[in-house]
Structure prediction request, 78 residues.
Amino acid sequence: MAYASHDADDESWQFYGNEAEVDQNDLILVGLVEVVELDETVAQLADLPLGWHAWRDAKTSPWKRAKMPDEVPGSTLS
Prediction:
């Protein structure tokens, strides 16, 4: 996992790897427990507030956090 968001509009979580573009056909709905089983460091994001996102360069890198901008021009993560 390289990117996570905790969406304010529906309180859902989204997780992505390092892929430049995301194919909507590859998206699946899973429980947060399943994501943590794949990558235990995701548990460090449990307190990520609604409307915030987190990212990192590599699995061994620390997570960086920030409030999400209202709109991300050209984003492939929508």
The longest helix spans residues 32-38. The mean pLDDT is 88.
